[in-house]
Design the sequence.
């Protein structure tokens, strides 16, 4: 539950790189002048050169053995800088799904993902929120039909990993398969949406898309067996990103309180604000402990981190949400202007809330896993 | 029938007769009727509704008729509000002059000032902006630096004001300026009225986290202001400002209750976006529980306002009670916004108009915009300080 | 929603009387030296002489027209003084039930209740919590069988008003009747429990108790039609008592903060404590507004105050609970000793939580009444 | 096998062999093994368990063997804790000397003091009380008034201490006293050890809101104390006290984690007292949601403690982290108490033993007793002050 020497070095090199290459102003630039891919491709190329695109993979697939604690350290920096990259969709979910499926795609496309020449997007959510058990997108007799509502990095992906129902008489998470669909396949329509946080997602329609058996990733009808584990791990990585953002906000707020004067004193000397900051710090460290527990559980080979993932997501949501609200409030008038960066974190936090399940979803799941 | 019941009956009849159907739906930002020299109406109905209300003096129902107001008693005004609420009538006029300056002028203005400004406010001819805050002052309003120098036959104003609501569209501004720097912070401040067309006045919009630019920074660069534009006497601006801040807080409360009424029905939205199980409960038990929290707070706030009204009427005002309204109201509003946003799910993550419905658009933008409410008009922290000292008697 | 002149006078005379006759020390005395009745009978006699035993009744039954706002004012004082009296069980519930049933008991026993020579206790709860719909106590062929777990004022009551199922094929609140059972009837066993707050309640067993038709209060099988309305009104009265307690706590805490010095200043000058007190005040006034709304709705003849009753109970529970916790905390070491009175309010608040439905019960009911 | 794994195996075997079955159940207050001259054991098994642990030095596993301690490394101590937790072994000894005085003596005591006191603590022969707080001081500990006057060959102690845990049963007390009143509050304080049998020492119990009397007020009336009983040097008591407070906070955390482990299982209790619907959910959705809050906090606290342990082990201690433990832990405990109380319904309203089960009795009494935890050992407010200044660097 503590970063080792290599992981600390990794974190500080990523931090230096992002400070240099992708400070929060880079997000503003992207927001105000969006690229077709939805991210800065040369930034991603440089991150790939630093090795982040293989970080969660086994050494056989190009990983460096930083483990999930190492990934967490990287995600924290992503969160601190609000960096827009395909790492989450294409690597943390995409590459991990390919590796977990452990079939011909591992040799055919995994190297391209690691090389950054191919980027994946996971197409799961339908309707308003994450609910894989309600998947209605159907693959029947070689034809895929359906619509995905919230495909992260959809605008920049070369391929979609589509969760689809392949056994028509099933419900819930039984009878699902994972299908690799190239973006340019006939019948695929991608509708890009610029989200409030300067990132993007897409609504993707699959209309009579032809699919052959080599496009299945992993065993047909039983995708949930390996997808769920990958999503739990990705949820922990996302929580790490969120807490990175929360920590950055706390530090910026403390700096502001130590700088700004009112009624002839630093506003940081007001006890009511001090206590609120102290409580935020406690909440942050509590959530951080759950994230570290989860990430190190993966590194120790624990197979089932479902409960830890849900636990971490809920606390990360509560923490980032509260921290961003308090940061706006404590920055006073400046906090509600776009001149300072606080509002960008505020918006990012609400987007993160919806990725891979909101607070209600994970609270319900935690309770069910605990048996009450 | 008692006179008040009679008034209610007449008012109801008049509103039903005169308020166009299109003006009985929740107002969207684009269709608000703002005062001003260059006043524009989004629709002919809006113009009609405004003019009919203006002509009765019901843009300012309780102001004296001699200045164009409606001359209603407090009870009658309440009846009018209730009847407008019943029909969901939109407010006929939006203006800071109406909400803030007018009430202060009626107390502190001299006769010439009232004659000059009040009826224009009632008629919506002038749009007013507020010039209180300054970039370095924040909650410590009295540390303001904008100064008005006495040049004999006029004042020369230099400095800058921030958070001037839509100052780029305003015709006049009421501002606090320093006219004497020798005393304590609160002394030597004057309350002054400035025509925005005067040479040397300029504005820059401030972009907000909601993507909008409702506020400006306003600059005064050697601006000449006639000496008769001081309200309430030289160096007496702090007293006028306090009077006005009272109205600002009341205004915030009114705005909120307007918003409460006109805003989304949580239950309806949740039913639509989340759905119910066969026993008639929302499918998401966390959100269901948070809706209970929210409704209980929002409805309790309505009762609190009602209680305040009855206290006023029976002249038994509990002095601490009005102090709670802004703190509670703005918090409740923000809590509701967060809840609405969660209910929208991934439809609450963009404010691109084409990617979702106008209703969704409104919810998301309000969510961000309303973060201002616990800061503007006295931060929540200042409200709590005031409650602790004034209502609870805790030591300074 | 404001007390009128008469109600204000009533409140101040009750306050003066209780200050004199039943300050909190009277509760201590009763706790340490319990009476068989569970309350001070001569105190009750004096309160009866002041007219409180008829306060909720119509003028035909001896009421003085103070209305429910007037009752609320009295209950507030009861709450401020932690006075132990049968007013709630025997008058606010008991007499009101008799009056609402509107049958021969109104002339036969109501005068004795008003005179204080008879005191009633309402026997409803079975098991761990208030849930009238699950009533299992059964009256079958003239014989009553069952057990009631939480009968307020059970030790002092001369008679029980027992909610029992009389139609065996019903469930929920259909098929219930209200039966008047004398305490000394054959087959009645009363087990008195001294509660943590110095009050008492009883577990009452009805074993083969013979019942004739004159013991029915109101129409057989349809008691819920009038009982529910009486309980809603009683719930509002209870909420008024609770907020009286909360307000007393706030005032005592403010006095302490204005008196106690630490680090060479009054502890009331610490901003963090000031903000917490201000928030408590806001919460109190919010809850108070709902209670007044409910009480004045009754006075204005509104028939259905179910939603307001549940609303008021939930806010009163939250307010009194929070206020008592904060009062203990802000009194520091003294707050956890029995030397000061704060702990007595703390305990009273938790007992009130359970009377006529806890927070879960009323939140659920509010949501159902609002249709979501 | 690595040495630590070997140690684990041996420890596990030894515990399985030596910990009687009756000592593997959650401990109830009456069966706690407290140190003292008049030490009594509730059962023969308790005596056996205590003696076996004492003889291995495992009442104080990490203290030096030369004073009777176990001499374990930090890692070995952790393994012992884990293995004891695995078998649910009860703590073999309760004593403030063990938890607080001992660690401070090992740092600040001279050799004679260590020889005199440490091994008696390990062996549970002396029960210690703490004499820090005074009635008028509260959180402002340093404003203490109890004074020790230098009489040449001894000190003469006069004054009073409050919150001395079970001082009526204690053999010795460690106390802070003023030995020099000329400097600032924090100067002139000494740390002193006093035999409770000395003439002039008396105690009065303080009744708590839980109905118990765990604490006393202790009075010193011309009490003669040998000069060698000062620890850490004259007028240097504040430094010793700070060392000790560290252990107090750690102790609170340990106590909590003991309590967390030994306490009620929320889920089990709720299942029993509330019941489940056919889909396996608790019948009360509000309580169900509050259980989620509670479990998420309590389990996160365990992870936070675990993280702290790993930070210590890898010598990367984040200095702010330990400061959060007491604040979070005591809050979580009280929240849990409130929840347990609500789950009990009307079975949680009495602490008459005959009216409910011992388990219910325990829950209700703990609910009241545990209100002390956010006050004793540094109030929550003091904790937040410390976090704000030391961990966050906010100005004084």
Sequence:
């Amino acid at each position: 539950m503590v970063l080792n020497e290599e992981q600390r070095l990794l974190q500080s090199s990523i931090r230096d790189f992002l400070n240099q290459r992708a400070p929060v102003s880079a997000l503003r630039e992207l927001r105000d002048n969006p690229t077709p891919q939805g991210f800065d491709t040369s930034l991603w190329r440089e991150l790939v050169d630093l090795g982040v695109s293989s970080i969660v993979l086994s050494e056989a697939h190009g990983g460096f053995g930083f483990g999930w604690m190492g990934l967490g350290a990287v995600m924290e920096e992503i969160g601190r800088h609000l960096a827009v990259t395909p790492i989450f969709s294409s690597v943390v979910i995409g590459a991990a799904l390919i590796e977990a499926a452990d079939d011909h795609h591992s040799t055919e496309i995994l190297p391209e993902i690691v090389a950054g020449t191919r980027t994946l997007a996971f197409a799961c959510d339908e309707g308003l929120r994450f609910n894989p058990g309600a998947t209605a997108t159907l693959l029947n007799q070689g034809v895929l039909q359906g619509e995905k509502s919230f495909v992260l990095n959809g605008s920049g992906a070369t391929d979609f990993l589509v969760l689809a129902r392949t056994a028509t008489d099933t419900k819930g998470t039984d009878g699902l398969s994972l299908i690799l669909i190239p973006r340019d396949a006939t019948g695929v329509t991608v509708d890009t949406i610029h989200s409030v946080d300067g990132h993007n997602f897409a609504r993707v329609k699959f209309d009579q898309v032809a699919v052959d058996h080599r496009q299945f990733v992993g065993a047909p009808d039983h995708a949930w067996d390996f997808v769920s584990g990958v999503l739990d791990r990705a949820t922990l990585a996302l929580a790490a990103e969120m807490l990175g953002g929360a920590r950055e906000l706390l530090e910026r707020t403390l700096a502001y309180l130590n700088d700004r004067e009112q009624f002839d004193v630093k506003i940081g000397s007001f006890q009511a604000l001090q206590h609120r900051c102290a409580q935020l710090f406690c909440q942050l460290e509590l959530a951080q402990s759950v994230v570290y527990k989860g990430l190190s559980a993966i590194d120790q080979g624990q197979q089932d981190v479902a409960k830890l993932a849900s636990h971490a997501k809920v606390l990360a949501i509560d923490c980032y949400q509260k921290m961003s609200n308090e940061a706006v409030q404590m920055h006073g008038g400046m906090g509600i202007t776009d001149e300072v960066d606080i509002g960008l974190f505020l918006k990012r936090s609400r987007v993160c809330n919806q990725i891979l399940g909101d607070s209600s979803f994970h609270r319900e799941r935690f309770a069910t896993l605990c048996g009450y | 029938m008692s006179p008040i019941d009679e008034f209610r009956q007449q008012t109801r009849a008049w509103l039903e007769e005169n308020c166009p159907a299109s003006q009985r739906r929740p107002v969207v930002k684009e269709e608000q009727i703002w005062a001003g020299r260059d006043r524009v109406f989004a629709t002919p109905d809006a113009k009609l509704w405004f003019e009919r209300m203006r002509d009765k003096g019901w843009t300012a129902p309780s102001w004296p008729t001699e200045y164009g107001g409606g001359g209603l008693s407090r009870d009658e005004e309440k009846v009018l509000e209730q009847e407008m609420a019943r029909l969901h009538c939109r407010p006929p006029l939006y203006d800071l002059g109406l909400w803030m300056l007018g009430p202060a002028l009626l107390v502190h203005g001299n006769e010439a000032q009232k004659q000059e400004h009040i009826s224009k406010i009632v008629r919506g001819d002038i749009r007013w902006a507020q010039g209180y805050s300054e970039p370095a002052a924040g909650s410590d309003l009295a540390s303001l630096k904008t100064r008005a120098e006495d040049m004999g036959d006029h004042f020369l104003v230099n400095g800058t004001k921030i958070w001037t609501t839509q100052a780029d569209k305003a015709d006049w501004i009421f501002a606090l300026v320093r006219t004497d720097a020798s005393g304590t912070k609160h002394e030597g401040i004057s309350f002054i009225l400035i025509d925005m067309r005067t040479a040397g006045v300029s504005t820059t919009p401030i972009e907000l986290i909601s993507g909008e630019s409702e506020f400006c920074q306003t600059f005064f660069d050697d601006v000449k202001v006639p000496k008769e534009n001081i309200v309430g006497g030289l160096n007496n601006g702090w007293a006028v400002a306090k009077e006005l801040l009272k109205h600002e807080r009341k205004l915030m409360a009114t705005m909120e209750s307007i918003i409460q009424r006109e805003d989304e029905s949580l239950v309806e939205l949740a039913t639509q976006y989340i759905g119910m199980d066969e026993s008639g409960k929302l499918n998401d038990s966390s959100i269901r529980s948070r809706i209970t929290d929210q409704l209980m707070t929002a409805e309790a706030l309505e009762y609190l306002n009602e209680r305040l009204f009855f206290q006023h009427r029976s002249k038994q005002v509990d002095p601490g009670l009005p102090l709670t309204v802004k703190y509670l109201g703005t918090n409740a509003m923000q809590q509701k916004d967060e809840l609405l946003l969660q209910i929208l799910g991934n439809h609450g993550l963009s404010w691109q108009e084409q990617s979702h419905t106008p209703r969704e658009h409104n919810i998301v933008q309000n969510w961000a915009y309303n973060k201002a409410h616990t800061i503007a008009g006295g931060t929540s922290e200042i409200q709590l300080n005031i409650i602790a000292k004034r209502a609870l008697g805790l030591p300074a």
Q: What stands out?
A: Residues 256-262 of chain D have pLDDT under 50 and may be disordered. Residues 261-391 of chain D form a domain with the Butyryl-CoA Dehydrogenase, subunit A; domain 3 fold (CATH 1.20.140.10). The first strand of chain D starts at residue 128 and ends at 131. Chain D has three domains: 3-94, 128-236, 261-391.
